[in-house]
Specification:
Layout lengths: L1 H10 L4 E3 L5 H12 L2 E6 L2 E2 L6 H4 L15 E3 L5 H12 L2 E5 L13 H6 L4
């Protein structure tokens, strides 16, 4: 069943895109709707204000949030959690954590987003 699920992940949610003008709460809600797991976006060591746009975070954090000329961020269910988190950092300069559907436990970076959504441990 694992092989079939992994194959299905390649075709499920083929594209999840993030734009700098979206609010943090919208990006997180869209991510949960697309993948069934929780996305937490941070400003420094604290959760980012959900009402701020990604572009507005640039003025509120010491870390440069890359919103000018940022490429399109595409995430698939077949990506490893660690790769997706790194992609947010490389594309927007944002620190994110992907957590279980309840948002309580960080997901192992070696799992795919699809595996995390199904509650698989390896």
């Amino acid at each position: 069943m694992g092989l079939l699920n992994n194959l299905k992940d390649h075709f499920t949610n083929a594209e999840f895109a993030v734009a700098p003008n979206k609010k943090v709460k919208t990006v997180c809600a869209d991510f949960k709707k697309a993948f069934g797991v929780t996305l937490c976006i941070y400003k420094g060591n604290q959760l980012a204000d959900p009402e701020m746009t990604l572009a507005a975070l640039n003025k509120r954090t010491t870390k440069d949030v890359k919103t000018q000329g940022a490429g399109e961020l595409k995430i698939k269910a077949s990506m490893k959690v660690g790769e997706a988190e790194k992609l947010f950092d490389q594309t927007f300069g944002l620190t994110v954590q992907i957590k279980d559907p309840e948002g309580k436990v960080c997901v192992d970076n070696k799992l795919t987003i699809g595996q995390a959504a199904r509650g698989e441990s390896k």
